[in-house]
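lol so apparently i was supposed to do this last week
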Amino acid sequence: MEMSSASIQLPTVVIIEDEPAQAELLSYNFSSENYEVRVARDGEEGLLAVREDDPDIVILDWMLPKLSGIEVCRQLKKSAETRAIPIIMLTARGEEGDKLRGFETGADDYVVKPYSINELLARAKALLRRTRPASVGELLQHGDLELDPGRHRVLRNGMPVKLGPTEFRLLTVLLERPGRVWSREQLLDRVWGHDLDIDFRTVDVHVGRLRKALHQEGAADPIRTVRAAGYSLDYDG
Ligand code: CA
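anyway here it is w/ calcium ion bound
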């Protein structure tokens, strides 16, 4: 248990909710479910928090001071950097028209207040299963590669692959989104964490180690180096 939480980066959530008691309840429950939580108390602060943190999911209240939830949602879905982050809107009962507008602005799901916290957590998990499957314990498979986050095990062509913790996290990130091109900066954020001041070349070193560990006689290199851009797990293996 401890091993898997140390090797898989925990999912991160930004909660944008102005009512202190609600924010507290959400923060407590998402923390208990092993999310890394950041709370913002108004729309402007929320927008800033999402842009800074690049979280895995956003819980967004409809009625907010400074910038409404719908406007925050619209701006996040308009920007290429934040578009893919799933958003769950919290709406008030009976706002059918509002709900529809919520979906037009690109919210991925919504719950109606007063909501059941367990239902909200279940919906958040369902969205993460699509976008960060390893963070909720899902087995990752692509080509001849298989990674089991819970058991901390990697197989290639059915053969066990031995990886250090950094290479394991790196492969997890790549396997969660096959075909996506990751910049070195994005990989640093995902694999090493936001706050560390690490040279970009560190990424190259660990990609090199990962390639070496995954190498098998006659099998293709699953990692593509994209010139001037970064790396991608991209092969037909
Ligand atoms: Ca509110």
